Amino acid sequence: MHRFITAAVIGVAALAFAGAADAFQCPKLVGQINATAGNRLDAGAHDARIKAAEADRLHKEGKHAEAEKAAKEGLERLGIKA
Fold this sequence. Notes:
Blueprint lengths: L1 H36 L5 H18 L3 H14 L5
């Protein structure tokens, strides 16, 4: 029983740490989009900036998985495989 409780506590801690790690990934990806898009005026850069804004909003709402997905879509519109 003691091993089960220890394993459960470790599992919960691992999930909490993974969630916190995802939270820091969002701003990094948004920054990468903004740096890459720079002053480009093409449609891909425009679409990427829109996705970056969406990802930033979702990140601030605490929806990190959705934010990461939106940011990765933005990077793909810039031709960067995420």
